[in-house]
Amino acid sequence: MADIIFVVRTNPTDGRHQEMNHWYTNRHIVDVVGMDGFAAAQRFTITDETQRNTHRYGYLAFYEAENVKTAITSLVAARGTPKMPMSDALGPDRGSTYYEAVDGKTGLIGGKARKSVYVEFLNPAGEDSDFAASYVAQTLPAIGALPGFAGGRLLRAHADTPTTPVFRYVAIYELADQALAIQFLATAKIPSPARSAEIEAFFFTAVCERLAKQDALRLLAA
Q: DSSP letters along the chain, please?
């Protein structure tokens, strides 16, 4: 994986889901992935419709970034120009944060398309270093080993992220079988020392295939 993931959470303007999805998938992520600093992207929607009432955002995008400063510079330069046209079908309430891998190792997240993911947004109650070490050593392997899961990775907010993150950490788990993962996670006894005082956790289903840099550049050149 690119060790840096730009996580963007969005909602459509009321009644304009289809229009937003068409624009976001077919235009917006193509524009962004084609910029310097980005390598690939994929979009997801929350799996359980009933959770839309408890989760502020219904859509999630993972942008695999090569360099945070370069990515930020590219986005700032393109904003408001024909290089990145926006759509009013995209709702104004959005959240975005650059995250970097805590373990520094190449993991399962990134480098391939994912059909579904389980994501935990986390704010530690205690010291960040203690939380990260405990989560990587205990919680991550415990969840990743459950039936239906294919592994996961913990990431923390990058120091150069331009806005104050709502959540300082995010854990992203790839799923081999979402239905099985939902079933077993509901009854699993997960090691608790590293668990956060504040956590939002949801299952997401892919909206589109992963878009790699070479494919974005080909589409932009067409």
A: --SEEEEEEE-BPTT-HHHHHHHIIIIIHHHHHTSTTEEEEEEEEES-GGGGGTSS-SEEEEEEES-HHHHHHHHHHHBTSTTB---TTB-S--EEEEEEESS-S--SSSSS--SEEEEEEEE-SS-HHHHHHHIIIIIHHHHHTSTTEEEEEEEEE-TT-SS--S-SEEEEEEES-HHHHHHHHHH-----TT--SEEEEEEEEESSPPEEHHHHHHHHH-
Domain residue spans of the chain:
4-221
The HSE-up count of residue 35 (CA atoms within 13 Å, CB side) is 27
34-73 pLDDT, tens digit per residue, is 999 999 999 999 987 555 556 678 999 999 999 999 999 9
C-alpha torsion sign, points 147, 149, 150, 155:
negative
Q: Summarize the confidence of residues 69-89 as an average pLDDT.
A: 94
Q: What is the CATH number of domain 4-221?
A: 3.30.70.100
| Total number of residues shown for the chain | 222
How would you write 73-112 as a 3-class SS string?
A: HHHHHHECCCCECCCCCECCCCEEEEEEECCCCCCCCCCC
Confidence (pLDDT) at 129: 82
| pTM reported for the whole predicted model | 0.91
Q: What are the tens digits of pLDDT across the range 120-132?
A: 999 988 778 888 9
